[in-house]
Amino acid sequence: MLSSSLQTNRRYCTRGHAKDKVPSIPDYITISRRINQLKIKVEGAIITDKESTKDNYIIIAIDSTGIKVTNRGQWIRDRWNIRKGYLKIHIAVDVKSKKIISMKVTDEHIHDSKMLPKIVDAIGKSKHVTVGKIIADGAYDSNAVFKCLADSGILPCIKVRKNAKLKKTNHFLRNLLVIYQKKNGLQSWKYSVSYGQRWIAETVFSCIKRTFGEYVYSIKSKNMIQEMMLKASLYNKFASY
């Protein structure tokens, strides 16, 4: 068949498909539809990691990053003033296994602190692990976040703002962090709570972008979300080896 003409090869392939001798190859549209129908759950990825959950206690680093919705060059955006916006992925990473245990995908207008309760709620639905503490940067410094973590029995290790002050309206855990960071210094507080582990979330972002790219291939919003969930699930598979 290698030396035959193209039409001859087509006849052989057509006859083979007709007689069910050659497996049919789905086209791009079929593959895309099947992928978008998959029910991908990142939350279930850590259940198989017995080493990190053997004590039923994990430490989580939370952060967010932006993902481009198109692969157009920066020159085109600057020249023609085209702005497509970007996606924001909010992740919670187990600092020991370096796996994503929860992820939410939003648009660029959603603030980080607004998504933390949803991430915590998604993790709380799992009966296999218990979150001991959460490490996050100053973007999550809000009374609503501290209240959510306190109600869930999670110790917040959040860097408060430089101009943070003691207030009666503040959550008591936030006031305690303000006192400690002002009295003993920020570096002393970082060392006491192992704040450097927050960079594991940045490492995960770097791995995903270097492996799958800094943009999404999908065009529709729901397909973009599905694509990012699939990439996160694949990253967890890679992290298992």
Feature tags:
241 residues, 10 helices, globular, five-stranded mixed sheet, Nucleotidyltransferase, domain 5, alpha/beta, 5 strands, disordered N terminus
- Tell me about the largest β-sheet: 5 strands, mixed
| CATH topology annotation | Nucleotidyltransferase, domain 5
- Number of DSSP-assigned strands: 5
**What strand order characterises the main sheet?**
3-2-1-4-5
Number of helices: 10
Q: What is the 3D form?
A: globular
Please give the domain count.
1
Give the second-level CATH assignment, the architecture. 2-Layer Sandwich
Taken in chain order, the helices and strands follow as HHHEHEEHEHEHHHH
Helix content: 40-55%
Mean pLDDT level: 83
Task: Estimate what percentage of residues fall within beta strands.
Answer: 15-25%
Identify the CATH homologous superfamily: Ribonuclease H-like superfamily/Ribonuclease H
What does this structure look like?
The protein has a single domain (38-239), classed as Ribonuclease H-like superfamily/Ribonuclease H (Nucleotidyltransferase, domain 5). α5 (112-124) packs parallel to α6. Helices cover 45% and strands 16% of the residues. It has a 5-stranded mixed β-sheet, with helices on both faces. The model is unreliable at 1-6 and 47-53 (pLDDT under 50). It is an alpha/beta fold and 241 residues long. α6 links the parallel β4 and β5.
